[in-house]
Automatic annotation (TrEMBL):
Pfam families named in the record: Lipase_GDSL
Annotated keywords: Glycoprotein, Hydrolase, Signal
Gene3D superfamilies tied to this protein: SGNH hydrolase
Keyword Glycoprotein set for record: yes
Listed name of the protein: Zeta-carotene desaturase
Source species of the chain: Vigna unguiculata (Cowpea)
Amino acid sequence: MGSSVTSMSSSTILLITICTLSSILSASSATAAAASEEGRTRPFKRVYAFGDSFTDTGNTKNAEGPSGFGHVSNSPYGTTFFNHSTNRYSDGRLVIDFVAEDLSLPYLPPYRHRKPNDTFGVNFAVAGSTAINHLFFVRNNLSLDITPQSIQTQMIWFNRYLESRECEELNCKDFDDTLFWFGEIGVNDYAYTLGSTVSDDTIRKLAISSVSGALQALLEKGAKYLVVQGLPLTGCLTLTMYLAPPDDRDELGCVKSVNNQSNYHNLVLQNKLEEFRKQYPEAVILYADYFNAYRTVMKNPTKYGFKEVFNVCCGSGEPPYSFSVFGTCGTPNATACTNPSEFINWDGVHLTEAMYKVISSMFLQGNFTQPPFNFMLAKKERAG
């Protein structure tokens, strides 16, 4: 051993010294950052999230998501921020991740892969989820067996979590300091019934009823702070445009009929939220206008740094979309762009981290929640 050390060159010793100092400095920096983070005031102690793939931080893996979503456990999912797949349907962070950052909280662990003592909350959102119970689609021969979860499933998971031992230890049934983030859900319901005899009106009524039931269950449990996302500008998603007839386009180039469907759904949802505000005056209920936030970006993409509006960053196929349902992101034939920050669409269905960051900013610092998010924070501060 001694002879090996003696034979080391001066350059080797210098390199080891530099690496050691670097490690010490990195550790010190991390400790300082953690201390700084602890010193910041957290308006909420924890967050519980619900929704579908737009909010899912890892409850699905590989082909468990709906057809056409690719293999989310494979590269290049997650490469922009995490440097590996985290089973998020994007190249990096989602809206819910930016929400956690803004609230000085860690990223929410997925319910299926959480660890004991998840002090700061849990994410129950799962890709492929529907608002309507899965049995409805089974009875109408419209089910995808790989996506049996619905918002009812997530509520069952949530109740199980509340009954768990770790939850009792954390006193997580006290919702005075808890934010409930209800990500968008309902897009899959309309998608699964596309071309069937089931009408949009039927889906809308059942979906709104199901979502309302889940929200009311949370309010009855004592939830005081809720943010509810509406459906996005679905007709601008590449998969939708790829499958839709070219003559069904609005002024933005998006699928008009699909956007009309989403817009009407959102109007009905907002009316229901207004009823809840009257029924539960002690609660602060925000509507996050995903549809118009998305539409605002589409109207002037260069203002937000985007050069590619419809073309996917990750996929395979010919222009104008570079998308194919037979070679979606994460499959062997798919490739990814080198500049995802310039793309709105990541894989044909989901958005890039860059787009999610813009949308989250429009929710948290902009005027795309009603009432504004700052209104909720002010109410929370006054309540203590």
